[in-house]
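How a chain folds remains the central question behind the approach discussed here. In the encoding step, the backbone of a single protein was reduced to a row of integers, each denoting a local shape. We regard such an encoding as a compact summary of how the chain folds. The sequence in question and its structure tokens are set out directly beneath this paragraph:

___
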Amino acid sequence: MKNPVALFKIKGMWEQFVQNHPKFPMFLNALKSSGMGEGSIIEIQITQPDGQQLKTNLKLTQSDLELVEQLKGLM
């Protein structure tokens, strides 16, 4: 069972995140519209304040998509 206090706390944290980064929810909505399919590639890049960059990518498999669906069911 979901803890209502924890959900309320996360909701507030999400609202602050959206205020700080308003383009990210728009990105998620666009992703929701277009979807992700098997073979889609997710790239992640982090640029640290000193300029150092860390970058990786992954190609989605069917089991990855099933995991995403299970996680969406928890929300």
